[in-house]
Amino acid sequence: MGIIKICSYLLFTLLLISCNNRSTKDNISALGLLGILGNQTDQTLDDKFQTLDDKFQSLKSTTYYRKDGNLQFQDILIEYQLKNLLEGSETIEAYLGNPSEISFDLKTKTISGYLNRKEDQFQTNSILFSFSDHTKKFKIILTLKKEGKIISYREILSTPPNPPTIPPNAIALPAITYETKRSLIGGTEYQVIRVKFQLGADLSQFIKLDAYIGRPTIIALAPDNYNVINYISATYYNSSSNEFLFLTPELNSSYKIFVVGATTDAKGNRSLDTIPPPPPPSPCQGSVNAPTTIGNCSTHCLVVDLAGNQMSYIAKSNIESNLEYIYLDATSSTPSGGSGPANFSWTEHESPIGAGEYQTENRTFDVTTYPHACMIISSYLVKDGPSGFSDHYINGKVNVP
So which domain of life are we looking at (predicted)? Predict the structure, then answer.
């Protein structure tokens, strides 16, 4: 308030002097005095917002180029050294932003307009930022905070990295082949595709070997004939198994695969188109229609009949005399080995055994209640007598309508 009163008084005095026809020289002197007082007022305000102490010994920014698929990144490494060791309540935080947008307000001790913020939590004297546009320049503000308040800061501009020069396409990769099959992994069936170089190929000169898989009409080489675009997935060359490996749950799909390789001064590529593996044979492959006979009934057979919706089967054996023991059974199962549509049946005889036909009980089931396309039936025969012990086994597949 004192300064304001003085200024008002001087303005009044100046006007009074002018009105009393004082000289121009005297008027200028009065204005000069007012200006001096005004500068003193500004200086007093600035004293409230003094520049923070610089507690950083050094600050360095290094950028690295990184490519991940179709994206090109820049990794910005911020390295710093402090003049003194951090105290318990002090932390280092860095702010990254566009040079024209990020700023530090000295009066409020706050940073605005930043894109990302990271803390050196493990006190490695470094902080790493990554950005998906490798051509941009950034400003980084590094701060030292004590109890959450900024007590020192420094600014630095990053320089975009230079992408590595891709060598000319002047090398021929060895020929490649592939194998594909279906395989059950963790309860899910996959198409397994293995891509290999020709037997005996010398790969020692290559510093990079990768393979990419995609839809035949979509995946493509970039104009440099080295990078691959619009692919589904990529993999590296496994030198221990000597192959590139792809797994896909699409069992019936065809793919195009690009293999790219680079030496220290050249690059090249190979490609091939795959055909999906054939489906596994049907579990009912080889089945016959009823009525049918499996085996030879003069010795051992299974007889299957069908009447309307009722299917039946029975095991038979023609036995010569003088046997001491005979065992005969008939059983059914699903194509996958589960329980069949009818119960197990068997018959057993001991001496005296006369010559003739022996058979199991007839088993019948309703085909409309059986969900599978076929059934597997089998029979086991055991004979023992003066000629010694013998056994015989027969089985077959029968379509179930």
Answer: Bacteria
Question: CA–CA separation, 146 vs 38, rounded Å?
Answer: 36
Alpha carbons 234 and 236: distance in angstroms, whole number: 7
Q: What is the dihedral of CA 179, 184, 188, 192, to 10 degrees?
A: -10
pLDDT in tens, 5-38: 444 444 444 444 444 444 444 443 333 333 333 3
Q: Is the dihedral of CA 391, 321, 317, 347 positive or negative?
A: negative
Q: ∠ at Cα 117 (112, 119), nearest 5°?
A: 130
Q: pTM for the complete prediction?
A: 0.43
| Residue 325: φ, ψ to 5° | -155, 140
Which residues does 202 contact at the CB level (< 8 Å), separation at least 6? 174
Distance CA 343, CA 346 (A): 10
Beta strand pairing call for 188-197 and 323-333:
unpaired
Contact 34, 12 (CB under 8 A): no
Interval 110-159: pLDDT, tens: 999 999 999 999 899 999 999 999 999 999 999 999 999 999 999 999 99
Residue type, 95: Y
CB 244 within 8 A of CB 211: yes
68 bridge partner residues: 71
CB atoms within 10 A of CB 207: 9
d(CA 373, CA 357): 32
HSE-up of residue 314 (Cα within 13 Å, Cβ side)? 12
Q: Is the dihedral of CA 167, 169, 171, 177 positive or negative?
A: positive
Note whether 153 and 67 are within 8 A (CB).
no
